Amino acid sequence: MLTAAVQCDKLRAGSTGDWTMGLILGKLYIALRSAGASEEQAQAAAAEVFGYENRWTKIESDLTIIKWMLAFNLATTMAILFKVFS
User: Fold this and answer.
1) Rounded Cα–Cα distance for residues 78 and 86 (Å)
2) Which residues, other chains included, contact 33 with Cβ-Cβ below 8 Å and sequence gap of 6+?
3) What is the C-alpha separation between 4 and 25, in angstroms, rounded?
4) pLDDT tens digits, residue range 12-67?
5) 3-state secondary structure at position 84
6) Helix (H) / strand (E) containing 25
7) Range of the domain at 21
8) CA 39, CA 68: separation in Å to the nearest integer?
């Protein structure tokens, strides 16, 4: 059985994940292996969880951009309305 650091390196290879994510996935891998899952199944499950985490991160960053766009649009609209009615 591999150590957690080696497992994290295997999961992190080729990805842009940070160390915390690698450690979490390494712990998931270890838990799956100790529960009786094969090495291939444990790696596939950890990689799938990592994929979902990447999607949530992208959604959160897109939401931040949308909030800024909405705030800019609201400020511009208010400025135009102030200019028109004053």
Assistant:
1) 12
2) 1, 39, 42
3) 9
4) 554 555 555 566 677 888 888 888 988 888 888 888 887 777 788 888 899 999 99
5) helix
6) helix 19-34
7) 4-85
8) 44
Does residue 2 have a pLDDT over 60? no
Instruction: State whether residue 86 is helix, strand or coil.
Output: coil
Contact between 25 and 46 under an 8 Å Cβ cutoff? The reply is yes
| pTM value surpassing 0.70 | no
First vs last Cα of the chain: how many Å apart?
Answer: 74
Res 73: pLDDT? 98
Per-residue pLDDT at 72: 98
The interaxial angle of helices 4-12 and 19-34, nearest 10 deg, is 120
The CA-based dihedral angle spanning residues 79, 82, 85, 86, taken in that order and rounded to the nearest 10 degrees = -130
Q: Tokens 């891998």 appear where?
A: 29
Split into its structural domains, the chain has a count of 1
